[in-house]
Structures are given as structure tokens and as C-alpha cells.
Design brief:
globular; 11 helices; mainly alpha
Length: 210
């Protein structure tokens, strides 16, 4: 593994609330107009889109479910037979005979979506998001930092996974992508991959899931 990625992984493991506070200071500085008006206007638009979706996520998780499902449906539709067969064996849902049909694909996507949501609830980032979203005395800099994390993840999605980004942005779902970025990255890489890359992934899955 490249030394840079090892270093980044170590740094990620050391991330904490003070890091989020720094992001909040940075965002507040930009929004104040101290830098360019264009960046200030961009931040204001991102703030507005974040506020629209945050309450719904805290109340019922439905926006998160919808975001994950959009990604998973695109992934399942693109996956080859070897990959789909491997997924069917893994989820053990007895849907092999309808895997090639839309109903079977949707069921598989829905099953994996629920699995991701369950795992996501235990992550530090999600717990922090829910805690801050339901705290009346939320530190302003911490909240700005949370929005900055959301905005940066949205821009990463736009840069690397534009196909999905332009599906979810009109719904505001790109602003909660940061909560499930790690869980969805592999699926997004597959969706944007070339056919030979996807075939290799399918074969790997088929070998690993017996």
C-alpha cells in the first residue's frame, strides 16, 4: 500500500471534534465574505440545501434510505450475472429465479440498502450528526464544520461520480452523502467503471462468495 494512503488512514483515525471545529472556522471565514463573493454565495446555497434535508434525516432516515437505494439500484442494474449470483448467495433471500427481472433487482437493492443503514447507525459520524442535530445548544462552529463536511463530500461526488450526483442533487441528497460516503464508495466506483473493470469485480465477488 502506498505510504500516502497509510498516512491518510492514520490521520482519519485521529479525526475528532476539534477537526470539525477547524472546518467550521474555515467555513465561517469564507461565508463572512473575507474571500471571494463567489465562494461566499456557494456556501450560502450549500447551507440552505443542508438545512432542507437535515430535519428529515434526524426524524426518519428516509432521505438516507433514498440516497442509498438510488446508488444500489444503479449498481444492481449494471452488475453482470456472476456478480448478481454472488450477491444473491450473500443476502440469502431466495430470489435467484427472478434476479434478471426488475422486481428481483429492486428487492436485492432494497435488502443491501437496509443492511447499509443498520451498519451506518453505529458509525461515529452518524452518532455525532444525530447528537448535534437534536441538541438545542449546538456550538455554531461545530455546526458550520458539519455543513463543511457535507459540502466537501458533495463536491467529491460531483467530481468523481457525476452520473449519480446529478440524479441526487435535485433532491438535496448530495448534502447527506457524507454520512454514507465510505459505505457507498465501492458501489459508486463500480457504477462509473468500464465493462472490463466491472467484469473483474464480478469475478472477484463470485470467487469470494461461494
Amino acid at each position: 500500500m502506498d505510504a500516502r494512503y497509510v498516512a491518510e488512514g492514520i490521520l482519519d483515525s485521529l479525526s475528532s471534534i476539534p477537526g470539525t471545529m477547524y472546518k467550521g472556522l474555515k467555513r465561517s471565514y469564507i461565508t463572512s465574505g473575507a474571500l471571494t463573493p463567489e465562494r461566499r454565495m456557494r456556501n450560502e446555497a450549500e447551507n440552505e440545501r443542508f438545512f432542507r434535508v437535515i430535519k428529515a434525516v434526524i426524524n426518519n432516515q428516509e432521505p438516507l434510505r433514498r440516497l442509498i437505494l438510488i446508488v444500489l439500484e444503479s449498481y444492481v442494474k449494471k452488475s453482470g450475472k456472476a456478480g448478481r449470483d454472488a450477491l444473491e448467495r450473500k443476502v440469502s433471500f431466495g430470489i435467484g429465479h427472478v434476479a434478471g427481472k426488475s422486481g428481483g433487482q429492486m428487492l436485492m437493492a432494497y435488502t443491501i440498502t437496509n443492511s447499509i443503514l443498520m451498519r451506518m447507525k453505529g458509525t461515529f459520524l452518524y452518532k455525532r450528526f444525530i447528537k448535534w442535530g437534536t441538541t438545542a445548544t449546538l456550538n455554531a462552529l461545530m455546526f458550520e464544520g458539519l455543513i463543511e463536511e457535507a459540502a466537501l463530500a458533495s463536491r467529491r461526488m460531483q467530481k468523481h461520480y457525476s452520473q449519480i450526483y446529478y440524479q441526487v442533487r435535485p433532491l438535496g441528497l448530495d448534502m447527506i452523502y457524507f454520512l454514507v460516503e465510505d459505505q457507498l464508495k465501492s458501489y459508486l466506483e463500480y457504477i462509473k467503471g468500464q465493462p472490463n473493470f466491472c467484469e473483474r469485480v464480478d469475478n472477484e465477488l463470485s470467487q469470494k462468495i461461494r
